Amino acid sequence: MTRIEKQKERISNGVEKIVSLAKRRGFVFPSSEIYGGFGSCYDFGPLGVEMKNNIKKAWWDEMTKKHDDIVGLDASILMSPKVWKASGHLTAGFADELVECRKCHHRFRKDFIKEKCPDCGGNLTKPKKFNLMMKTFIGPVEDEASVTYLRAETCQGIYTNFKNVIQTMRMKIPFGIAQIGKAFRNEINPKDFIYRTREFEQMEMQWFCEPKKADKFFDYWLKQRLNWYLSLGIRKQNLRAKEVPKNELPHYAKRANDIEYKFPFGWQEIEGIHNRGDWDLSNHSKYSGQDLKYEGSFPHIIETSVGVDRSLFAFLCDSYTEVKGGRTKTTKSAKEIEILLKLDKSLAPIKIAVLPLVKNKLELVKKAKQVYKLLKPNFVCQYDETGSIGRRYRRQDEIGTLFCVTIDFDSLKKDDVTIRDRDTMKQKRVKIKDLPRLEIFDF
Ligand code: GAP
Fold first, then answer.
1. Exposure of 393 by Cβ count < 10 A (0-12 exposed, 13-18 middle, 19+ buried)?
2. pTM for the model
3. C-alpha of residue 46 to centroid of ligand 1, in Å
4. What angle (nearest 5°) sits at the alpha carbon of residue 394, between those of residues 390 and 400?
5. Which residues of the chain have pLDDT under 70?
6. What is the H or E stretch that residue 425 is in?
7. Which of 28, 202, 251 to mutate to test the pocket of ligand 1 (most atoms within 8 A of CB)?
């Protein structure tokens, strides 16, 4: 079985349609596909990267524009290994329990399986701890002294820069530091497409506050984060917060809530809200010998931590709609299932598609290309002339394009176009010269 086949097998029931759409339409490709794939890593295609950038922008604006007193940071992925010793990630706290099949020697995360090997039914070994940090070497010598790690969470760079940010930006608690970046975990059983991978991207915000106000801020940030998903179109019935039981808390947390999304394969965490107390600043003070106190004591930290990939997956699942019999009753497609991706305006990868009514009329194509050029500086656009116009509308609906701008024979005489709205399919005619005005696209 190739890696790609294994990867496909690991994808649980119910998401095949999303996975197929993501591959077919350029959202997500398996990494190193021409070599049979690689270790549950994925590449984001032309539409995936646009959507990912839109999610990151929505989060960054939410944190740094909507809220006062949050500044940004972009710390390096490679850090001193001492950071990971101090943070507790090199000990049992950041390890999953692994079992191995005595017969086929496949390895599994203990909490993902029952008594027997799911691959061959063989007996399993006793569980042992498996650390998730990804090891590498820094510099030309590969010995113990040059071992370091790819970061397993982005927030550690925030703690090591706590004093730098306070000093350079004159911050006073309560304040936050936001960061977006890659993180790596040597997951034993990556699964469910881009849900659990070994390389992923996090959007984390660390809120530094007085210890006595930590509970209040925990509730505040939990509510803010739930509202963020709702404001971006996630349906209320598919979103919930779940208190993490004390015996399941991450090693750094005093309290945690998972924000969960109802994926086709069940309720799963997409974001963690953590009260980290003074765990990080006090440990980094101890291990580095630097005083990381603020006015004589350690502030407490409320953290919001979401995966870009996981949230993208949730946004795709939530917006995926099948219309049996099709929406366009006038065309042949009426008997088929039409797919509509009802992505929020800010998240849709393509905002406008420019379509000449037919491609074998040179004047139409020429005009359509002029319109495309006019719109491209302001909107992410796609030019499409292949296939019937009905087919092209459906292709755009399937990737969530907000508007289709069609150039027909009247356009040649009147210098205007029709704009079609994705959700209502309503159309209106507007002058070409008015197209760069945003409000033209308000239906
Ligand atoms: N700094 C805290 C922290 O990293 P976490 O609950 O381990 O907390 C936060 O991770 C978020 O990062 C998760 O809710 C998820 O969205 C994302 N994440 C974690 N591990 C992941 C993985 N293996 N693949 C994809 N996303 C992951």
1. buried
2. 0.94
3. 24
4. 145
5. 1-13, 329-335, 443
6. none
7. 202
